[in-house]
Design goal:
This protein has one helix at 147-191, and strands at residues 46-51, 56-61, 65-66, 75-80, 84-86, 89-92, 97-106, 116-125, 131-133, 139-142, 198-199, 204-208, 213-218. The chain is of the alpha+beta class. It folds into two domains: 46-146 and 196-218, Lipocalin (Beta Barrel), CATH 2.40.128.260; 147-193. The strands form four sheets. Strands 2, 4, 7, 8, 9, 10 and 12 form a seven-stranded antiparallel sheet that branches. It starts with 45 loop residues before the first strand and ends with a strand.
Length: 222
């Protein structure tokens, strides 16, 4: 018996393939932007000066003072009148402010004892506002002694009293009148004004350092 022919099996057609999707680009992080840092200011350079004790500083006092009104520790302002040099370099420029205080007030007497003021400077103020400690010797101002004026007042009153006493009572009256005149003259002198010690605004004084002072001054480009 002859074999039955098997019909050929049609090859199954594969479904049409879908179009490929476009590749997705990978997102990359943005590159960091450069940060603009502000430029550093140039560093300030300083040089140090040491003023030895007994250094001389010329000052112009800006505060008016009188022994009749001043009180201990009252503030006194002044300005440096000329450059203070160390090894040929300016350590304290003219015009710098200097601060001080009243250290002595003696009003004196009306018959004897002159009035007196004492002032000492303790602080230097630089151009940038920084302060430097200073120790200066105090300087003093004395009022005129009232002794001479009082003697004249008393003596003059005695002479007037003697004249009046002589007119009123002869010889004896002259003695009485003279004594009375002397007493009156003394009272007038005691009641008179004292001669105050004063420092006028604008006065020029010279002070000396009592101990060394260290001052830092900013270097300036030449």
């Amino acid at each position: 018996m002859s074999p039955v022919p098997v019909p050929p099996v049609a090859a199954s057609s594969s479904p049409a393939s879908a179009p490929a999707a476009p590749p997705v680009a990978e997102s990359k992080p943005d590159a960091p932007r450069p940060v603009d840092f502000p430029a550093e200011p140039p560093r300030r350079a300083f040089e140090e000066f040491v003023l030895p004790a007994s250094s001389v500083i010329g000052l112009q006092v800006e505060t008016a003072l009188s022994s009749e009104r001043a009180r201990l520790e009252d503030r006194v302002d002044a300005r440096v009148t000329r450059d203070v040099l160390v090894n040929g370099r300016v350590a304290i420029p003219a015009g710098s402010r200097v601060l001080g205080s009243v250290t002595l007030v003696d009003r004196g007497g009306k018959v004897k004892g002159a009035a007196r003021l004492g002032i000492r400077f303790h602080t230097l103020v630089l151009a940038d506002g920084s302060e430097v400690a200073l120790n200066t010797e105090p300087f003093y101002r004395d009022g005129d002694s009232p002794a001479g004026d009082s003697a004249k007042k008393i003596g003059g009153a005695t002479a007037v009293g003697a004249i009046l006493g002589g007119i009123l009572g002869g010889g004896k009256g002259a003695v009485i009148g003279g004594a009375t005149g002397a007493a009156g003259g003394t009272a007038a002198a005691m009641a008179g004004d004292r001669n105050a010690a004063v420092v006028a605004a604008g006065s020029i004084v010279t002070v000396h350092l009592s101990s060394p002072a260290t001052i830092q001054v900013e270097k300036r480009e030449s």
